C-alpha cells in the first residue's frame, strides 16, 4: 500500500496535516493507516539534529520503520521534515522495490511563521532558535521535476489539503515500475557462491602464473574455459582481484544455472575489460 512523505520546515504543520490525511484515508481503505513520527517519545530533537551521526542514525531508523510497515494492507505516512532530497530518493526507491505508489506533501510556511509556531510548543518539543535557523537553511525543497518528488502536493499554511487528489494518486495510479537497482536480487545457492569464488580464483592464479612466460598477443589457455585469454599486457594481483570482485558482484545478481560456465564467462569478461 502507498507511502506518503510529508515535507517542510520544522514546525510547519506537517503533523496536523498528517492526522487530517489519516482520517480521510480511513474512509478510503480498510487497511491500517500508520503515521511514522521522526521523534519517538523520549528522544531529544535538538541533540539529534546537532550531531550528524545521530541524525544519520535517525534517518536510517525511519527508513527501516517505513520498510517494515509497507505491506499490501497498510498506508504509511512519514511525518518528518524529510528535508534532504537524497533521503527522499531513498524512500522513493523503497516504494519502487515494494511496487507501491507514493506521493510527497510539501507544507509551505514562511520562515517567521515556523519560528513563531516553534516557540509556542511545549519545551520538550521545541527546537532551539539557532537550530531552527540552521534547519531552514539546510532545507532542500521538493521539485515537481524530480521523479522521487512526484506526485507533489503543495499546501500553504492557511489552505486545506487537496484530499481527493491525494487519494486518487495513492489508490488509483500505478506504482513506478521497479528497475535493476531497486529489485530484489535473485538468491543464489550456497554451492553456486562457492563455485563462483573458486572458479574465478583459479582463473586469476592461472593468469598470474602463465603471464610470466607469455608475450603480448599470446592466447593463454585456462582451466575449465573453452575460450583463451588474449594476453596483451601484464597485470598485477591487485588489478586482477579488482576485476574479479566486479565480476562476482555482477554474477551474484545474474546467476547461471550451469556452474561449469563460470570460468568461461569470467574469461569473456576479462578479454573485454583488459583489452578495451
UniProtKB/TrEMBL annotation:
Organism: Elysia marginata
GO MF annotations in UniProt: ATP binding
Classification via Pfam families: KTI12 (PF08433)
UniProt keyword annotation of Nucleotide-binding present: yes
Protein name: Protein KTI12 homolog
Family: Belongs to the KTI12 family.
Record key words, sorted: ATP-binding, Nucleotide-binding
A GO biological-process term: regulation of transcription by RNA polymerase II
Nucleotide-binding found in the keyword field: yes
Amino acid at each position: 500500500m502507498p507511502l506518503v512523505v510529508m515535507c517542510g520546515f520544522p514546525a510547519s504543520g506537517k503533523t496536523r496535516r498528517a492526522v487530517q490525511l489519516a482520517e480521510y484515508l480511513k474512509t478510503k481503505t480498510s487497511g491500517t493507516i500508520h503515521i511514522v513520527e521522526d521523534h519517538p517519545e523520549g528522544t531529544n530533537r535538538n541533540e539529534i539534529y546537532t550531531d550528524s551521526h545521530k541524525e544519520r542514525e535517525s534517518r536510517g531508523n525511519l527508513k527501516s520503520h517505513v520498510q517494515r510497515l509497507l505491506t499490501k494492507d497498510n498506508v504509511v505516512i512519514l511525518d518528518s521534515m524529510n528535508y534532504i532530497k537524497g533521503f527522499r530518493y531513498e524512500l522513493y526507491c523503497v516504494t519502487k522495490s515494494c511496487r507501491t505508489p507514493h506521493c510527497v506533501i510539501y507544507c509551505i510556511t514562511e520562515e517567521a511563521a515556523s519560528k513563531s509556531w516553534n516557540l509556542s510548543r511545549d519545551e520538550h518539543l521545541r527546537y532551539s532558535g539557532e537550530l531552527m535557523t540552521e534547519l531552514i537553511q539546510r532545507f532542500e525543497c521538493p521539485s515537481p521535476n524530480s521523479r522521487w518528488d512526484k506526485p507533489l502536493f503543495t499546501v500553504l499554511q492557511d489552505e486545506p489539503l487537496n484530499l481527493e487528489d491525494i487519494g486518487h494518486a495513492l489508490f488509483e495510479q500505478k506504482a513506478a515500475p521497479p528497475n535493476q537497482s531497486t529489485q530484489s536480487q535473485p538468491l543464489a545457492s550456497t554451492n553456486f557462491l562457492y563455485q563462483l569464488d573458486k572458479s574465478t580464483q583459479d582463473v586469476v592464479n592461472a593468469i598470474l602464473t602463465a603471464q610470466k612466460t607469455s608475450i603480448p598477443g599470446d592466447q593463454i589457455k585456462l582451466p575449465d574455459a573453452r575460450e583463451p585469454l588474449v594476453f596483451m599486457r601484464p597485470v598485477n594481483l591487485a588489478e586482477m582481484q579488482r576485476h574479479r570482485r566486479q565480476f562476482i558482484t555482477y554474477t551474484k545478481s545474474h546467476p547461471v544455472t550451469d556452474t561449469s560456465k563460470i570460468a568461461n564467462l569470467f574469461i569473456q569478461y576479462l578479454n573485454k575489460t583488459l583489452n578495451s
